[in-house]
Write a structure and sequence with these properties.
The structure is a homodimer of 683-residue chains.
Chain A (H helix, E strand, L loop, with lengths): L8 H23 L5 H17 L14 E4 L5 H11 L5 H5 L29 H20 L11 E5 L1 H5 L1 H12 L5 E7 L2 E2 L2 E2 L8 H8 L2 E5 L5 H13 L5 E6 L13 H4 L4 H11 L11 H31 L1 H12 L8 H5 L8 E2 H12 L6 E5 L3 H4 L18 E3 L4 H14 L3 E7 L7 H10 L4 E5 L17 H6 L5 E3 L4 H13 L5 E4 L4 E2 L9 H5 L6 E4 L8 E5 L3 H14 L4 E5 L3 H6 L2 H7 L7 E4 L8 H4 L4 E3 L10 H7 L4 H19 L1
Helix pairs in contact in A: 1-2, 1-3, 1-11, 2-3, 2-9, 5-7, 5-17, 7-17, 12-13, 15-20, 17-18, 22-27
Chain lengths: 683, 683
C-alpha cells in the first residue's frame, strides 16, 4: 500500500497532509453534509502550523501561555477536528465519524467549550478573525503586566486561518484596522486565497487588492504562492515572526477541493464530494480507495511529536513561572488566579459599601461609570472602552491610562467608530482569559454588534456590553438614535442577561452581577437622563434592590394588599412610582415592581415570582419606553403595557416621551383600563 | 455692517459660506443640542456643491434625473438644512429655528420623507455612504435601460459627504469594495478629514492610510488640501468627473468648528458652542455678533441661481424625455411609471394564476425562487441578489443576467459576503426610485444587516429581504447557523413586516404582498426543507391563504366549534396539522390557524382577529421553531407556546428539531396542558 509505506521526511509530510484531507472528506461524506474543499486545500498549512509552529500542549489545552489558533472559516471544521484528533486532543476517531450528528462534539462549525483545542466559535464569517485581534491584544496586555522579575510567562502568538468571506465582512475590516493601530505584531492571519466563493469565482464580487488594503491598514503582508510548498509556509512564518510591531497577513494561494474532480470549483465548497469523487480523489492521492477514516501508523508516530513539543514547551514555561514566583510571588499568584477565572477577595467591597441615601439624581450611565471606577482598583483584570463615545458612555477607568501600540500597561481601549469589531474583540479578550472586558456604545448601536453579542451568548463568554442612551429620553438626536425594539430583541436572545437598572443602587448591583457572570454575557441598558436614587431604608443597597432576582417589590401597596401591580424597568420605574402615588391617592392600593432583568426573574423559583407578581392580582400595567413586544408574559390577559410601538421623535427627551405616550397620565389611564377589565370579569 | 456689504464674487462666496456656518451655529445654539462643528467646517463644500455642481431643481425635488446628495454624517444636519433653506427647498427659517423640536421636520438627524431634498435618513454611521452605492448603482441600471433613441434621460451623479466614522464602519468598507467592483464611476465621496473624533484626535484610534485603502478597493482618490479653497473644490470635482469607471474618494481636509474658540477640538463636535463662543466666532467671521439666523440679501440673491440652474436643467431633461417619447414611447411611459412607484398592470397575474394542487413538496425558499421568476418577466424594475448564497437563497432571476461593471443590463446582483452592505445598498436602490430590489442571505445573518433593515423601516422604504434557512430544521450547520431569536427580534421592530409562509401557496402570496408594499420593508423567512402544499379547495390560492390578513383558519375543527386552537407559522404549521389530527382522533375539536405575519394580523379589525382566535377559546398552543418571546399575546394566560428558548444543535434537521422539543408530541403535550388549565379554571 503506497500510503503507509515507510516514508522519507517529505513523503511523511505528504502522508500527514493526505490523512487530514481524507479524514475531512470522509467526515463530510459520512455526515452527508459539510464543507470538504477547504479542509482539503488548507491541510498542508494546518499540518505545518500544528506540528512545527503552534506552541501548544494537547495534554494541557487550557495552558495560559499557549498560542491561540482560530479557524475563522469555521465551515472548514473538519480541518480543525482532524488536526485535534491527530495532535492528541480529546477528539476520537469516533468523534470524527460522528461529525455533525446529534450530541457529537464535532458540530457543523467549531464551538468553544465543546472540544478542547477549539479556541473560538466560528462559522459566522468575520467573527473569528476579529476575536483573534482581541486575543492578541489580551496577550500584549498580560505580557506587559506579568513578564517581570526576569521571567517571560506570557509570550504567545495568535494564528488565524481566514477565508475570502472573512476578509470581505465589515467586522473583519474594522478589526484589521484596529489591529494595526494597536501594533499587534504577534497576530498572523493566513488568508485562504482560493479565488472561489459560493456564487462562483471571486471575480463575481471580490476584485479589490486585498494585500494593498491590509498594507494600508498598516499590516505586514507576505505571500505563500503554493500552500503545498511546506518550506514556503515555514519561510513565511519565519518572516512573520521578524516583525513584532505589525500584524501579518499571509496571502496563501490554495486550491479548493485539491486533487478531487471538483478542484477549483464552487461545488467543492459546501456539499459532500460524493462517494465516487471521494474514491477518485483518494486514487489521485495514492490513497487506498476504499479506506475510511484511515490514519496510517507513520502519521500517528509523526504526530506524537506534538505531545513531545508540547511537554517541552510546558516545562520551559514552568521554569519561567518558577522564576516569576521567586521574584514576584504575588504577581505569579495573580496570574494563576486570573487565568482560572477566579475573582480576587473583596473585589466588590467598595461597590457593596457605597450608599446613595444622600446622593442627588444621577443618570444610570453616571452610576455605571462610578461602578466601573469603584471596582477597577480591586479588579486589575478589568479593561474596557467605547466605540468613540467614552465621554457619553462614561466607560473610562480614571487614571487607568490608554492601551496603545506603544504602551499596553493602560486599561482603557479606544475602539474607534467600530462597534462590531468592538464586540468581537471584547469576546476575544474574554475567550483568551486573564482579563475581563467591557465595551460601550449607545443602545441603538447594539444592532451594529449584534452578531458578536450572539456569539458571546452562544459561546458562554461573560463579555460585558455597556449600552447607554437607552430610550427616547435621549431626546433631540431623534429616531435614528432612539432605541425602541432593541431591549426586546436583546431579551429574545438565549443566554444573555439584559439589565436595565432604574437608578444608582440598582446600577451598582447590576455591575456586580455582570462581573459575577462566568458563562453568559451581559448587556447593560443605561439612561442618558438623571434619575433620583431609591431609598430602601434597609442596611444594604444590595439587599434592598434584589437586582439579582430580576424583579422585586420596590414599593408595597398601602395596606399591603395590592389591587394593582405596576411593573417597570429603568427610568420608567420612576414613572410607575409617580403613577402609583396618584392611583393610591385615588384609592387603589398599588404595588410597584422594579424589574431590571426579565431573564433573571424568569429563572427564579415560582415562590419568588408569585410573591412579586401574585397570580391573584390580575390588574397589572407594565411600563417601559420601548417596544411592548414580550411584555404580555408578565401582565397577562387582563393587563396593559405602556410602551412605544413606533419609531421615536426628535425633541427634548421629556417632550418626546410624552408625545409617544410614556407619562404618568399614560400609566394611570392604563391602570384604569386593566382595573376595569378585572372588575368587569369579576361581575 | 461688514457681512452684508456688496461683495465681489469671492467675498460673496465667503458671505454664503459664513451664512451657512452661522445658521448652523444658531440652530444648534437655539436647540441647545446638536453638532455645530462639522457643518461649520463643511460649509464651503456644501455651498459649492449646491450652487455649482449638484444637478437639482428645488422646484421639483422628486425629479427622476436629479443628482443625489447624501450627507452621510447626518449629525451635521444643520449643514443640509441650511443648504436646503438657501436653495429654495421647502425649509423655512422657522424650520431652522425649530431645529430638533417636537414635530419640526428639521429633526436631529435628516430623515427621508420629512423634508424635500433629504435623500436618505442618516445618523447611524456608514449607512448613508453605503446607501449611496445603491443609488449610484440604480442610476447605472436605469441609464442602461432608458437612454435609448438618442435620448439621455438618466445621467446623474451621487454625491456624499462622509465623516471619519462613516469610513471606519464595516458597512462602509464592504460597500466601498463593491462600489469599485461594480465600477460606479458617478459616485463621489468627500471624506471630511478633520482628524478629530469624539474621543480625541483620530490618532487615538484611526491611523490607517485611508487613501491607500480606497485605492486598494479600486477607487480614484483625490485631495482637497483646504476646504476653504473653493477653486480646489471645483478642480477636484472636475477631476472626479473625468473618470467614469471608478468611484472617487476626495480626501478633504477640514477644521471642525472653524473660526470658533473650539476649532480642531472634540468639543466642537457634539455640543452647542455656547452663547459666548457663538459671539466670538461671529466676530471672527466679521459677522454681526448679535445676529441670529441672519441671511444677508446678497446671499439670498446668490442662491436664487440655484433655482435658475435647476429650471434650466429641468428644461434640458424635458427635451430628452420628449426625444425618448418620440423614439420609444413605451419606454418613456415605463420610466414615468416606474419613477412614480406604480406597478404595471397585470404584474401579479402569473403569481395569482399559479396553482399547487398537484405539486409535490417544496421548500418555501424554492417557492420563493418560483415567485421571483413568475413576477420578474412582468415587473422589469425588479432586481436583486444574494450575499454569496444565491444557490441557497434561490434569489436568481433566470435568464436575467448579472449586473457587472461592464454590463448594467442584467438583473442579478452579487453582493459578495457583505450582508450589511447588501442591506444598505438595497435601501439605496429603493430610495433612488425606478427599481424594486431584494437581497438574500440566511435568516441567521439578518443580524449582520439589522441596522440597514431598521433604516428601511424608519425611512418607510419597501426593501425586500429574503431570509432562507429559517430555523433549526436547516440541520447540521448547527447553532452558529440556526436562527432562534431572529424572528422575535425582527417582529419587535416597528414598521417591518415579517412573513413566514408555510408552503408554496402562502409563499407566492407573501411575495405578492411584499411587492405591494410602498412604505415598509418586508422580511421573508423561508425554509431550507421541503413542505407539502396546502390544498384549500377553493378557486384561488390567494383567496384561500389570506396571507394578507396575517392569520387565517387553515383547518376548522370537526363540528366547527373548536375546543382548542393551534397557531403556527412556516414549517410548524405542518406540525400543528399533524398534532390536530392526533388531537381530533382523541376527541378534541381542534382548529389550526396559520399565522404567516403577526404584524398584519394585529392590524386587522377586531372582527377578523376574533373570528380567527375566538376569545371564548382560551385553550391555545402556538408552535414555532424559534424563541417563544412575544407569543404570549396570541395564546393568552391559559395558552402554551412550543418553541426553542436556547441555542440550536448540530444534527440532521428533524433530529435537531425533535431534540429541541419541536414535534407533534410536543404540541400534543402542550395542548393537554392548556386544556387542563382551561378545564381547571372552569371547575
Amino acid at each position: 500500500m503506497d500510503a503507509t509505506a515507510t516514508a522519507a521526511p517529505a513523503a511523511l509530510d505528504t502522508l500527514c497532509v493526505n490523512t487530514i484531507r481524507t479524514l475531512s472528506m470522509d467526515g463530510v461524506q459520512r455526515a452527508n453534509s459539510g464543507h470538504p474543499g477547504t479542509p482539503m486545500a488548507l491541510a498542508p498549512l494546518g499540518h505545518r502550523i500544528f506540528t512545527r509552529h503552534l506552541k501548544h500542549d494537547p495534554a494541557d489545552p487550557a495552558w495560559a501561555d499557549r498560542d491561540r489558533f482560530v479557524l475563522s472559516c469555521g465551515h472548514a471544521s473538519m480541518l480543525l477536528y482532524s488536526l485535534l484528533h491527530l495532535s492528541g486532543y480529546g477528539v476520537s476517531l469516533d468523534d470524527l465519524r460522528n461529525f455533525r450528528q446529534l450530541h457529537s462534539p464535532t458540530a457543523g462549525h467549531p464551538e468553544l467549550g465543546e472540544l478542547p483545542g477549539v479556541e473560538y466559535t466560528t462559522g459566522p464569517l468575520g467573527q473569528g478573525v476579529s476575536a483573534a485581534v482581541g486575543m492578541a491584544l489580551a496577550e500584549r496586555v498580560l505580557a506587559d503586566r506579568f513578564n517581570r522579575g526576569g521571567a517571560t510567562v506570557i509570550d504567545h502568538r495568535t494564528w488565524v486561518i481566514a477565508s475570502d468571506g472573512d476578509l470581505m465582512e465589515g467586522v473583519a475590516q474594522e478589526s484589521a484596522s484596529l489591529a494595526a493601530h494597536l501594533g499587534l505584531g504577534k497576530l498572523v492571519v493566513f488568508w485562504d486565497d482560493n479565488r472561489i466563493t459560493i456564487d462562483g469565482t471571486t471575480e463575481v464580487s471580490f476584485t479589490e487588492d486585498v494585500a494593498a488594503r491590509y498594507a494600508a491598514y498598516g499590516w505586514q503582508v507576505l505571500h505563500i504562492e503554493d500552500v503545498d510548498d511546506l518550506e514556503a509556509i515555514d519561510a513565511a512564518i519565519a518572516e512573520a515572526r521578524t516583525d513584532e510591531a505589525r500584524p501579518t497577513l499571509v496571502v496563501t494561494r490554495t486550491h479548493i477541493g485539491i486533487g478531487s474532480p471538483r478542484q477549483d470549483t464552487p461545488q467543492a465548497h459546501g456539499e459532500p464530494l460524493g462517494a465516487e469523487n471521494v474514491r477518485l480523489t483518494k486514487q489521485a492521492y495514492g490513497w487506498p480507495e476504499d479506506s475510511d477514516f484511515l490514519v496510517p501508523d507513520e502519521v500517528r508516530e509523526a504526530y506524537a511529536s506534538v505531545a513531545e513539543r508540547g511537554a517541552e514547551a510546558g516545562a520551559a514555561w514552568d521554569e519561567q513561572m518558577a522564576r516569576l514566583r521567586a521574584a514576584e510571588p504575588e504577581l505569579a499568584a495573580e496570574l494563576q488566579r486570573r487565568m482560572s477565572g477566579t475573582m480576587p477577595d473583596g473585589w466588590a467591597d467598595d461597590l457593596v459599601a457605597t450608599q446613595f441615601e444622600d446622593a442627588g439624581p444621577a443618570a444610570t450611565r453616571q452610576s455605571s461609570g462610578q461602578a466601573i471606577n469603584l471596582v477597577a482598583p480591586r479588579l486589575p483584570e478589568l479593561i474596557g472602552g467605547s466605540a468613540d463615545l467614552a465621554g457619553s458612555n462614561l466607560t473610562t477607568i480614571k487614571d487607568g491610562g490608554d492601551i496603545t501600540a506603544a504602551d499596553a500597561s493602560g486599561r482603557n481601549l479606544h475602539f474607534g467608530i467600530r462597534e462590531h469589531a468592538m464586540g468581537a474583540i471584547i469576546n476575544g479578550i474574554t475567550a483568551h482569559g486573564g482579563l475581563r472586558a467591557f465595551g460601550g456604545t449607545f443602545l441603538i448601536f447594539s444592532d451594529y454588534l449584534r452578531p458578536a453579542i450572539r456569539l458571546a451568548a452562544l459561546s458562554k463568554l461573560p463579555s460585558i456590553f455597556v449600552f447607554t442612551h437607552d430610550s427616547v429620553y435621549l431626546g433631540e438626536d431623534g429616531p435614528t438614535h432612539q432605541p425602541i425594539e432593541q431591549l426586546a430583541s436583546l431579551r429574545a436572545m438565549p443566554n444573555l442577561l439584559v439589565l436595565r437598572p432604574a437608578e444608582a443602587n440598582e446600577t451598582l448591583a447590576a455591575w456586580k452581577l455582570a462581573l459575577e457572570q462566568t458563562d453568559r454575557p451581559v448587556a447593560l441598558a443605561l439612561t442618558r437622563q438623571k434619575l433620583a436614587p431609591f431609598h430602601y431604608g434597609g442596611d444594604s443597597r444590595l439587599e434592598g434592590s434584589s437586582v439579582e432576582r430580576g424583579a422585586y417589590v420596590l414599593r408595597e401597596a398601602t395596606g399591603g394588599t395590592p389591587e394593582l401591580v405596576l411593573i417597570a424597568t429603568g427610568s420608567e420605574v420612576h414613572t410607575a412610582l409617580d403613577a402609583a402615588t396618584r392611583l393610591e391617592e385615588d384609592g387603589t392600593p398599588t404595588r410597584v415592581v422594579s424589574m431590571p432583568c426579565q431573564e433573571l426573574f424568569v429563572e427564579q423559583p415560582r415562590e419568588w415570582r408569585e410573591a412579586v407578581l401574585p397570580p391573584t392580582v390580575r390588574a397589572r400595567v407594565a411600563v417601559e419606553a420601548a417596544a411592548t413586544f414580550g411584555w404580555e408574559r408578565f401582565v397577562g390577559d387582563a393587563g396593559e403595557v405602556v410602551g412605544i410601538d413606533r419609531f421615536g421623535i426628535s425633541a427634548p427627551g421629556e417632550e418626546a416621551a410624552t408625545a409617544l405616550g410614556i407619562s404618568v397620565d399614560g400609566v394611570v389611564s392604563a391602570a384604569h383600563r386593566t382595573l376595569a377589565t378585572v372588575h368587569g370579569e369579576a361581575r
